[in-house]
Amino acid sequence: MAYNFRPYAQAQSFLLPVDIREWVDEGSLAAFINDTVDLLETSGRLQSFFAPYRDDGWGNKAFYPTMMLKVLLYAYCKGVTSSRKIAELLECDIHFRFLAANQTPDFRTINLFRLRHIESFSTLFVEVLMLCREAGLTKAGTVALDGHKVAGNAALDQNRTLEQLRAQVDALMSQAHQADLREDVLFGDERGDELPQELRNPQERLDRIKAAQARLEELLTATRLRQEAKIAQRTEEEASTGKTKRGRKPKTPDQAQADLLDKEPKANTTDPESRILKGRHGYLQGYNGQAMADCESQVIKAHGLTQDENDQGQLEPMLYASIDQSGSVSGQVLVDAGYNSADNAALENRQEFSQIELYICQQKEWKERKAAAQLQEAVEATVEPQQEEPVQTSAAQTVIVQALPEQATSAQTVAAVQTSTTDSDSAEAVERVRQRMNTPEGKQIYKKRAATIEPIFGQMINRGLTRFHLRGVKKVSAEWSLWCLTHNILKLWRANYAPKGTIPVIT
Q: 314-323 contacts: CB < 8 A, separation 24 or more?
């Protein structure tokens, strides 16, 4: 009896030279990234990746930037962000070996390439976005904006108050002094071979602790300057009118700083630039990534990164980011209640944003009813039973009370209008957005938001975005750019886009 198996001989030599392009399927993601990056290079769009290298031929030979970029983009598309894991795959994965042409840069080289080209990734995002436009995946229309909180490369339990940081600095400095004394006894005037083991890492740790301490001290200084500005403004207004201004006087700078210290502000000793953010599943130490996406194709048209927990202050910078990255901003912009404010509603009044329609979600219905009831009680409480004349209310209160029978306004909208009584444009903008959201058409348009932006963040999580690997705002911003541009690359690939010809110029 004889088995009928295919031949299997690992020691068999190839009779002809091997073409590594035959290793991968033409329709695979690796082949697509290979062709796309080659197109970008031949079109002269990768010059920023070549700029850091010497062009006189001197020095040790570096790995070709285009090859390194292909490997890094493919790795992020597959959710592999660890430089050590990428180096391992370059030895055993056929697609990685194809992109690298059998070259094997080590993990240090891969990580150094990623760090060296931090600013270039933002430029590359724009180039990929131009390919999406050429493929018909982005058009002037409806976009959705939201933030996604991602844990940083730092632990929550490494946050310290200012007093704790000062104590740690003193302890480390004392430790270093004691080590110097021990070395003087052991070596005298001689140097010795190297620093003792306990002092190799503490110096780096001391630098991080000092950076965290400096951040908290800057926060105290900013608080003092802010209070001094408030006091100066009040004094100037009283001097110009000749009357004492009503309301509570601002706290003194010392009182404001004391109140801040009572709240025990903290800084992280591992990544001082990261912040404590409240997410869906509790608190995390990290950053808030912003993304604005096309509602038809889920292509990300603009991205940004912030340390702020609240999204309210991110609408304006993201609209400008859309102009910088995609060339324009127009059409319907859908955002959730986290962006709801009078200032944001008034952005439509600006010339540069005149082509947009904002759809800003108000609060949930039960919150709207509660806010309306509280406002009604407050208005009624100001009317004495024996008083026959109607109570004089502000223009903003009149607008709100008249709107109550039709639709309860949100707590944020009420607060926004009340604080904008001297700014009729803001009050009108708030009312305009509220009325737009209350129409059947507006509600139907707004439904696109959750179906657009939430799945994008879900897809990133499925690819492995649970934590940033780099530290510091600048480096983490570059990493967020990598996640966003590889998301768009995957959209291009799944749309069967065939890279060819030239890339359109950004206008």
A: 314/145, 314/147, 314/288, 314/290, 314/339, 315/145, 315/339, 315/344, 315/347, 316/343, 316/344, 316/347, 318/145, 318/290, 318/292, 319/347, 319/353, 319/356, 321/290, 321/292, 322/143, 322/292, 323/352
Q: Looking at residue 65, what is its pLDDT?
A: 94
Provide the token pair at 483. 């996640």
Q: How far apart are CA 446 and CA 317, in angstroms?
A: 21
**Is residue 174 in a domain?**
yes
Domain region containing 195: 159-268
Percent of the chain with pLDDT over 70: 70
Rounded to an integer, what distance in angstroms lies between the CA atom of residue 374 and that of residue 162? 40
Residue 37's identity, in one-letter code, is V
Q: Which DSSP helix (H) or strand (E) runs through 34? A: helix 29-42
Are residue 363 and residue 440 in the same domain, yes or no?
yes
Q: In Å, how far are 29, 45, 103, 171 from 36, measured between CA atoms?
A: 10, 11, 20, 54
Strands 356-360, 159-161: pairing is: unpaired
Q: Determine the average pLDDT of the residues in 427-443.
A: 91
Determine the Cα angle at 460 with ends 114 and 33, to 5°. 55
Q: Are residues 89 and 205 in the same domain?
A: no
User: In this predicted model, which residue has the larger pLDDT, 132 or 216?
Assistant: 132
Contacts of 453 (CB under 8 A, 6+ apart): 144, 145, 146, 291, 293
Report yes or no: 217 and 162 within 8 Å, Cβ to Cβ: yes
- Residue 159 in contact with residue 266, Cβ under 8 Å? yes
Same domain, 175 and 248: yes
The dihedrals phi and psi of 232, each to the nearest 5 degrees, come to: -65, -40
In angstroms, rounded to a whole number, what is the distance separating the alpha carbons of residues 501 and 117?
26
- Of 35, 115, 46, residue with least CA distance to 74: 35
Instruction: Give the strand pairing for 282-294 and 143-151.
Output: antiparallel
Angle (CA) 307-308-312 rounded to 5° is: 145
Point out the domain boundary residue: 204, 237, 268. Answer: 268
In whole angstroms, give the CA distance from residue 383 to residue 391: 6
Residue 416 and residue 432: Cα distance in Å, rounded? 13
